[in-house]
Structure formats: structure tokens, C-alpha cells
Amino acid sequence: xxxxxxxxxxxxxxxxxxxxxxxxxxxxxxxxxxxxxxxxxxxxxxxxxxxxxxxxxxxxxxxxxxxxxxxxxxxxxxxxxxxxxxxxxxxxxxxxxxx
Length: 99
Prior knowledge:
The protein is mostly helical. Helix content is 63%, strand content 6%.
């Protein structure tokens, strides 16, 4: 366990003291707790993206345009990227201007 992880667990123990957990318990529970914290952070990021897309007038900021070939007469088609491409587009659009 690296120092950053130890510091995170120490801060968590300050807010949620457990009288029955000794160092041996912390050694085995620590990695599970860190894994849950990381999962929680990832879920919070996903929720923020979802809220940004759902509740703001933001869809136009991440829509992409498929440019038709010269022999196609249709107008360009708009589409929403998928998976990590959408995540990356939303993350970029959520950044404050100037960063």
C-alpha cells in the first residue's frame, strides 16, 4: 500500500472511527475500502456526466457531424458519440473555459 492510500485511510478513520479495528484488520480491510472509494469516485464522475447531459442544454456541445461524401446529396447527419468517445467529449465540454 502506498503512502497516498495510507493517508486516505487515515483520513477516513478520523471521520469514521472504529474501536474494534486494529492494524491487522486495517491491513486486510484497507485494500477493499480503497477499492470501494475508487469505485465511488468513478460512479460520481459518471453521474456528473449524466446530469450534465440530461439537465443542461448541452447535447449540441457533444454532437458530432457525419459529413456526406461528395456524391451523396443528403445533409450532414448528426450523431452522438458512444462509450469512451462520449465520456471524453463531455469531460472536455465540462471543463471551465481557459483550462
